[in-house]
Write a structure and sequence with these properties.
241 residues, elongated, 56% helix, 11 helices, 3-stranded antiparallel beta sheet, 3 strands, mainly alpha
């Protein structure tokens, strides 16, 4: 169940008060992310993902449910909350955590591009998309980097050229060298979008993975989304799974 289906399954969600909406969103966030706690920012992200109006004064709403003899929420340190045991049991009986699974959107690229390829490729692609969907942009870029690296290696393997991208110990080159070898190889013709986009994507992913002061934002990835899709499609077509 994704977030849209989850909201649709909540009887009268749109007419519920803001406090109840926040608690429903908190439960969904914890179920999807397999965590027992949530923050205000986590709940806000759920509302924003569904383009729903953000309730006012979420902090006060949460605080009001964390006090009294039978609190709905348990307040932790640094603005972190958990559902009380009874509240959690109530939601589990209503929805069941096992029924809530992460379904990648098409906001980064369609997961269907990896139909009939390899299970491990689809898994990495799904992680890249879901990280993007949930605002984990550095993590998404790391998965994108891994995905492109794997596809390039498999392109060379498809043409029995893997020795050209290995050192004398038999280890594959780093991504920068892989890209150079791939873009300049005479056995295939690479489109302009991939030639321009692949180095740009690699550079952004490198900064995200290795620069301790850089924190990727949504516009960073959005600026290379079209090049990313072109590159993925071209690599998959070249490998011809």
């Amino acid at each position: 169940m994704n977030i849209s289906s989850y909201i649709d399954s909540v009887d009268g969600f749109s007419s519920k008060n803001n406090t109840d909406k926040v608690i429903y969103m908190a439960y969904f966030f914890m179920a999807v992310n397999n965590t027992k706690t949530f923050s205000i920012e986590d709940v806000e992200g759920c509302f924003e993902d569904e383009h729903l109006k953000l309730p006012n004064h979420i902090q006060q709403l949460l605080h009001s449910k964390s006090i009294g003899k039978t609190p709905v929420l348990i307040k932790k340190n640094n603005g972190i909350y958990a559902l009380s045991r009874d509240t959690n049991k109530k939601f589990d009986s209503m929805f069941g955590i096992e029924n809530i699974s992460v379904i990648p959107s098409t906001n980064l690229f369609p997961i269907e591009l990896f139909n009939n390829t390899r299970g491990y490729l689809e898994s990495v692609a799904k992680q890249a998309i879901v990280c993007y969907d949930y605002g984990l942009y550095d993590a998404s870029l790391v998965m994108i980097r891994k995905l492109l690296e794997t596809l390039i290696i498999e392109a060379f393997e498809k043409f029995n050229k893997s020795s050209e991208i290995q050192n004398k110990e038999g280890h594959f080159y780093m991504l920068s060298d892989l890209i150079g070898k791939f873009l300049n190889h005479s056995d295939w013709n690479i489109g302009r979008n991939t030639k321009l986009g692949l180095p740009k994507i690699k550079k952004l992913a490198d900064v995200s993975a290795h620069n301790r002061r850089f924190v990727a934002k949504k516009p960073d990835i959005d600026n290379v989304k079209s090049e990313l899709r072109f590159t993925i499609e071209e690599l998959i077509h070249l490998i011809d799974y």
